[in-house]
Amino acid sequence: MDLGISGKRALVCASSKGLGLGCAEALAAEGVNLVMNARGVEALEASAQAIRDAHGVDVVTVACDVTTPEGQAAVLEAAEGADILVNNAGGPPPGLWTDWEREDFIKALDSNMLTPITFIKGLVPAMMERGWGRVVNITSQAVRAPIPVLGLSNAARTGLTGYVAGTARQVANTGVTINNLLPGIHATDRADALDSGVAKQQGISIEDARAQRCVGIPAGRYGTRQEFGAACAFLCSQHAGFIVGQNVLLDGGGVNLTM
Ligand code: NAP
């Protein structure tokens, strides 16, 4: 299927690895030019070059922390006029409800709620003027089914979800869609870190921790960044113009809900 977005320009935040990289790769495969971002320069440049080599698209890189005002200004400058925005950043650490103080919540809100809102406010007005735009926020299955040890993530991402629910409907008549993609467990560095945490906590091997976490996934495996990226590219396509304000679970069936 031709997604009809060749020649468009996308900002993909936090995209040197993992799910963000999957989205950048899938968009590039459709002929979309990219602004890619991450804090670490080396992995960012390597991923950007691999995408240029594989797909022949233009890729601009901005190495910075997207959760800081300086980082956001640098990314917004490079991405001015972007047609597509994929919001992403690292997830907050796991813990117990008693572990978290005001500062921890502020940090989580900055990363997983206020940063995506800043980019939406920065880029969506020009998309509205042009009459076309796509925004995809990478959130988490925890928005539908909160994960107890991820209290900071549950709190911040649910806040973003509420904001998007209203905003998506306020801009929909201008040709701009805003949706959320909710990953279940995918095989990325983040999943490795959480597997290591489970292994350490329970005194088991990482392989056993992984097998234990797979038990809760009807598909019997972790998702891949390629599968995730393909779903993102579809939401950014011409065909997805009537999909507005949705929360799309990509979790191998892990969250058992009828709606
Ligand atoms: P990952 O494999 O650890 O990759 C994270 C990417 O984001 C890297 O490129 C990293 O590069 C970049 N990054 C992190 N913090 C950043 C920041 N402040 N500014 C700019 N770039 C930043 O993580 P992932 O698995 O793809 O996860 C992506 C998001 O999905 C996270 O919020 C995660 O919590 C959420 N999620 C993941 C899963 C899963 O199973 N993988 C499930 C549910 C939700 P640098 O470190 O160099 O900056």
From TrEMBL:
InterPro entries: NAD(P)-bd_dom_sf, SDR, SDR_fam. It comes from the Bacteria. Belongs to the short-chain dehydrogenases/reductases (SDR) family. This is SDR family oxidoreductase.
